[in-house]
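Re: the request from the purification team.
They wanted to know what the chain is likely to look like in 3D before they choose a buffer screen. I agreed to run a prediction and write the result into the notebook, where they can find it.
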Amino acid sequence: MILFKVDDVVNRVKCKTCGAEHKYRGTIPAVKKTAGVRAKKPVAAKVTVNDAPLQWDLKIRKMAPSTPVKNYLVKETYKVHDVINHPVFGVGFVEKIASDKKNLCDV
């Protein structure tokens, strides 16, 4: 909203969004291209494919019927290659132990 003009030039405005009053700054002029400067090509977005469901399906199909499936418990510890049954997420395979400190340092 224009608050006042000086010699038909907008001088003071009120912001429609926050209600603050300030000096009118006008519009930002377009940036001119200089000769010899090449425009950057847009970078194509990298698309990653989530193949986890396919990997899980392959593992479950190759799993021997005699493979023990442990019911998941928060206080239980698991090893790589354990098969667990989570009450919400279902059957899963332990691929990596995030808190395995012995792999961090071989002292």
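For the purification team: DSSP finds one helix and six strands in the chain.
Please add any questions underneath this entry.
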